[in-house]
């Protein structure tokens, strides 16, 4: 019998009560027989035995957690308490210092770079600065008409701080931790970044100045140092014991050597090189794989991958911050943290109950205040200071601290690149930035001076009818954007979708060329529609999909095969792999044929923000390094197709009539796309996702190089509150 069973049996043993004197036939107790005494002894023994079993049973219940009476003593409670307290203890042990310290014995220096920049180090303040001086003709002249003019002249031309670190604090921090990017509904992502450890001390050990020469006509400043992770607080307390033991054994020197070598350390190099008179390029390189902390002499050291880097520098608490691409819901970014990831902007973006409803039906599709098609890592402040990254990896710009700006980068390589702009005004800053990003050229005259561009679907007969109604009403019509030129399909849930096959559907438009000629007689152009997807289908509609699949032109899954996307029942499609040169040439030929076969002079180059983070690319690059670059690559190949079709600008050998517009963008998209489109807003006036958000997105995008943009006049998505559909 098991112990617990025996205890239960003992507890259930009947205890016979001691008979009273009257129950023994009224005999006098003093006259009791020996037999009676033995009976009493037997009863007392049984009582004592029962009491002992009860005590054991009670103590057993306290010790045996799997047979509880009180929840506080149950094993489930103990394990739950452990699960709750263990992460708290771990976070306390690995508490991340947000301050840290700077250390250096390098004497102060100031080195000229290019025509206008000075890199300066102050040993006393432990501060690194970049100064910029104007180099225009006005500042080159020493003449002044009066003392007032001379003072103004000196103020405008004097060196000005374009960028500086916080005195005494590290400006570069390397960290380790998991980076998880969750794919929600296609085109929507949730980023979860955590830091398990990070460096807290930065040393500046040496400075190398490479003066201008024939090989390097502008000069370079190279700074080298070490990033060090200080011991956790409990480790510092325990190290006191080791220090005392070393002192007792006269091994203090060996102890100090061990402590210096046992820390986690990563070397870094910072290079400054002028990119122009107004832009100074910087490049950080660091050891991304280093030995971890050594706990004891000769102990095992785990290798640690430093997969995150944080650049920190000073900011004025009164500065206002703008830009960062088309930010629809943020007029000024001070006090906010903005992620750099191009994605679907969402439906509602915080407007309730629309956002809640879409998030529940289609996971993540409601978006939030910072989701945007055009996340660009560039900002400009009210003080005309500006920094931007030239990496494409996911990043976060943190403006929540009044006196510090932090940029977190997750570049899979051990290099962080960017540029610092030196300017005196916001227009000067934007001009300097667009030297890098490219500047959008003026649109063809017909696109903005000849009337409205009407988007519609429905086939030739409907197009003729609507165009005739507009002309009869005196509405000037510059273009007809026919999104369904490739055909229409109904999904299994009854939603009408255009075919993504990029070939003319002659059943929908049997007389396309006659329609185009009729429109041209009235000064109206035809526009079509494309995107980087290919829809899977049987029959001729799936011809391009099958061809691309066989050639390996679409992004792949880890297991092999086409990475299928789709956010509606009955809709499945693949995404072109633009890291594959053969795929780029192939789809460029498809777009060129579209223009030649349809005679269209414009089109919408839609999407570009759907590249999954768990796919496999032809180039072997990590998707996190390509995702934000994809819109730029998509715009570039559309530009080449336009030039090949003879529709490019006069400078490109074309007739200057071509125009396409993009929805997604990255840093150098303005170099390629003629026009931006602000996406799908609600049919409303609100600031979350209505007309106000479109205007705000247009203004912020303009400060990030997206100078020409537009939105749908009436919005896109109607909500069931009486809005017209």
Compact summary:
Helices cover 29% and strands 25% of the residues.
Could you describe the 3D structure shown?
By secondary structure, this protein is of the alpha+beta class. Helices cover 29% and strands 25% of the residues. It contains 17 helices and 35 strands. The radius of gyration is 37 Å and the shape is globular.
Helix content: 25-40%
Strand content range: 15-25%
Report the oligomer: single chain
Output the strand order for the largest sheet.
Answer: 1-10-11-12-13-23-20-19-17
Shape: globular
How is this fold's topology laid out?
Layout: H1 3-11, H2 34-63, H3 75-93, E1 101-104, E2 109-113, E3 117-122, E4 127-132, H4 137-140, H5 147-157, E5 160-164, E6 172-176, E7 179-183, E8 189-193, E9 197-198, E10 201-210, E11 220-229, H6 233-248, H7 252-262, E12 264-274, E13 279-286, E14 289-291, E15 303-305, E16 308-314, E17 321-325, E18 337-340, H8 354-361, E19 375-381, E20 386-389, E21 395-401, E22 404-409, E23 415-421, H9 426-437, H10 445-449, E24 452-456, H11 460-472, E25 477-482, E26 488-490, E27 496-498, H12 512-521, E28 525-530, E29 533-535, H13 543-551, E30 564-565, E31 573-575, H14 581-598, E32 602-605, H15 623-626, H16 630-644, E33 659-662, E34 675-677, H17 691-703, E35 709-710
Parallel strand pairs: 1-10, 24-25, 25-28, 28-32, 32-33, 33-34, 34-35
Antiparallel strand pairs: 2-3, 3-4, 4-5, 6-9, 6-16, 7-8, 10-11, 11-12, 12-13, 13-23, 14-15, 16-22, 17-19, 18-21, 19-20, 20-23, 21-22, 26-27, 29-31, 30-31
Helix pairs in contact: 1-2, 6-7, 14-16
